[in-house]
Amino acid sequence: MDIKIYDKLAKRYDFATKVVSFGIEELWRWMFVREIKKYIKNGTLIDVASATGEMARALDFNKMYLIEPSAEMVRVIVEKFQKMGYKKEDFEVIFEQCPHIKLKKNQKEIIIIQDTAEDAILHEKADIITAFMALRNFDDLEKGMENLKKHIKPGGYFAVVEMVKNDSIISKLILWYMNKIVPVIAGMMLGMKEEYKLLGKSITSLDENKILNNLKGFSIVKKQKLIFPIATLIIAKRDDG
Ligand SMILES: C[S@@+](CC[C@H](N)C(=O)[O-])C[C@H]1O[C@@H](n2cnc3c(N)ncnc32)[C@H](O)[C@@H]1O
Predict the structure, then answer these.
(1) Which CATH fold would you assign to the domain 3-238?
(2) HEC string for 62-124
(3) Which of 4, 5, 6, 45 to mutate to test the pocket of ligand 1 (most atoms within 8 A of CB)?
(4) In tens digits, what is the pLDDT along the chain, a chain of 241 residues?
(5) Which of 14, 115, 136, 221 could bond to 98 as cystine, CB 3.0-4.6 Å?
(6) Considering only CA atoms, which residue is closest to atom 1 of ligand 1?
(7) Is there a contact between 151 and 122 (Cβ–Cβ < 8 Å)?
(8) What is the dihedral of CA 169, 175, 181, 187, to 10 degrees?
(9) What residues have CB less than 8 Å from 21, skipping those under 6 apart?
(10) How far is CA 14 from CA 54, 73, 113, 124, 202, in A?
(11) DSSP-assigned beta bridge partners for residue 67
(12) Where are the domains of the chain?
């Protein structure tokens, strides 16, 4: 996905997402968090394609790695968590060519890595990786998921919410809305009609099997369609745990 679109959108991303999804994305996030907490309450999290860091804010684990390639999104994440009392550590390094920014608040630690899912390298494995509306943005889904899977502890989880192709009438209606109406709203609200046309197209690029095929070595412990069946939730557990 062209990162420039997300750079341009970064400062208005949270607001724009609420408006164009009528708050449904927030409802999906709430359902996702509720499911995740049934399996794991705290620990080390890697959130991929973090955008403005809402997933980290909602899960609030003790140690959180956020992987996000857009420099402007990273800026928004840092500002958001600073407002929540996190302090930037004296540690902003270019590590393996990618900026790492560390934020701390009491026992809680956030490390933001400005990189893609395909290329990010971490020197720690996580209890869980979350990918909320993330996978369809990867340039190479297989490479991205393989790289992420390497960073999960034995017995750890890979948790996904993604919009996928679906033949139901309601899904077709939602897709029509995303492809035809949302770009018009985004054009009026943000001057970003063409960008939203591209984002809309990316929704039809994934089907559920593509995701499941890339979860070899993991067992599916939860799979469900969320309200408005265009979004699917998958929680998979690494087999050797
Ligand atoms: C729809 S947003 C994700 C929403 C976010 N996960 C949340 O919880 O609100 C998509 C994000 O994917 C990021 N992205 C694009 N290409 C990526 C890649 N190859 N690897 C990881 N993230 C990518 C974009 O910069 C953007 O911030």
Answers:
(1) Rossmann fold (3.40.50)
(2) CEEEEECCCHHHHHHHHHHHHHCCCEEEEEEEEECCEEEEEEEECCEEEEEECCCCCCCCCCC
(3) 6
(4) 689 999 999 999 999 999 888 889 999 999 999 999 999 999 999 999 999 999 999 999 999 999 999 999 999 999 999 999 999 886 565 555 677 899 999 999 999 999 999 999 998 999 999 999 999 999 999 999 999 999 999 999 999 999 888 888 888 888 888 889 999 998 998 888 888 888 877 776 788 999 999 999 999 999 999 987 789 999 999 998 6
(5) 115
(6) 133
(7) yes
(8) 170
(9) none
(10) 9, 11, 20, 29, 19
(11) 48, 113
(12) 3-238
Nearest CA to ligand 1 atom 8: 55
- Give the total residue count for the chain: 241
Distance 134 CA to ligand 1 centre (A): 5
Which residues have C-beta within 8 Å of that of residue 196, sequence separation ≥ 6?
20, 182, 183, 185, 186, 187
- 89 and 119 in contact (C-beta within 8 Å)? no
Nearest CA among 65, 113, 105, 98 for reference residue 82: 105
Q: List the structure tokens of 20.
A: 């164009």
